[in-house]
What does this fold into?
Amino acid sequence: MKISHIEHIGIAVPNLEEAIKYYENVLGLKCYKQEVVADQKVTTAFFKVGDTKIELLEATSPDSTIAKFIEKNGGRGGMHHMAFAVEDGVAEALAEVQEKGVKVIDKAPRKGADGLNIAFLHPKSTEAVLTELCEDPNK
Ligand code: ZN
It folds into this structure.
């Protein structure tokens, strides 16, 4: 696969509104979009930092993976995943990593936030960092 850049860094937050305040008022970034991803039971908020985005994730339900992550982390948020943009497509990249014995969470690409096709690799196979592969289908 060919990775072009870090597409985004996903950060779990217990309170989206409070977190947005930090990113805007302290770091001077601008939240350009908020989006509910029903599939993943999260509300997301996006900031651009060069070619990379920050994706804040707040759980919309106690059985959301983000709610479980925060619970495990003693009620605090934290870095949740790293997402790479792959140039040759997520489906191809998934096939390639599975051939290399990598455990995947998504066996096929699915729709993620911000219009991307995404798939997650299992942290057991990615040096303990939950890793997302993405492609922008409109590019
Ligand atoms: Zn993500």
